[in-house]
Design brief:
By secondary structure, the protein is an all-beta fold. The chain has no helices and 11 strands. Strands 2, 4, 5, 6, 9, 10 and 11 form a 7-stranded mixed beta sheet that branches. The chain is globular.
C-alpha cells in the first residue's frame, strides 16, 4: 500500500523558517513529488515540485521562500519554508506521481502567527 506521511508542521512566528518532511512507502518510485497547500476557504495550490532527475519547479509566488529537496535513499521529500508570513498558514500536503497514478498524504498544519 502506497503511503505518503507528512510531518514537521506546527506553530511558528512570522519571519521564522520551518522544514516539512514527507516519507513515502509502498515500494513505488515517484516520477515527481510535490508540495501543495490549502488555506481555509481557498483552493489547493502548488508550492513546489521535484522530479526524479532532481529538477525543481516553483510557482512565482513561492520562488525564493521555499526549497524542495529529495533524499532518494530514504524516500523522503523535504520542503524548507523561509521568511514565513501569516498568509502562509495552511495545511500542507505531499503529492507523488508515479506509474500507477497520483497519491496524497494526509497533510500537516502550518500556522504562522504575527
Amino acid at each position: 500500500q502506497v503511503q505518503l506521511v507528512e510531518s514537521g508542521g506546527g506553530l511558528v512566528q512570522a519571519g521564522e523558517s520551518l522544514r516539512l518532511s514527507c516519507a513515502a512507502s509502498g515500494g513505488i518510485v515517484f516520477n515527481a513529488m510535490g508540495w501543495y497547500r490549502q488555506a481555509p476557504g481557498k483552493q489547493r495550490e502548488l508550492v513546489a515540485t521535484i522530479f526524479d532527475n532532481g529538477h525543481t519547479q516553483y510557482p512565482s509566488s513561492m520562488k525564493g521562500r521555499s526549497t524542495i529537496s529529495r533524499d532518494n535513499a530514504k524516500n523522503v521529500v523535504y520542503l524548507l519554508l523561509n521568511s514565513l508570513k501569516v498568509e502562509d498558514t495552511a495545511v500542507y500536503y505531499c503529492n507523488g506521481v508515479g506509474p500507477t497514478g497520483g497519491y496524497w498524504g494526509q497533510g500537516t498544519q502550518v500556522t504562522v502567527s504575527s
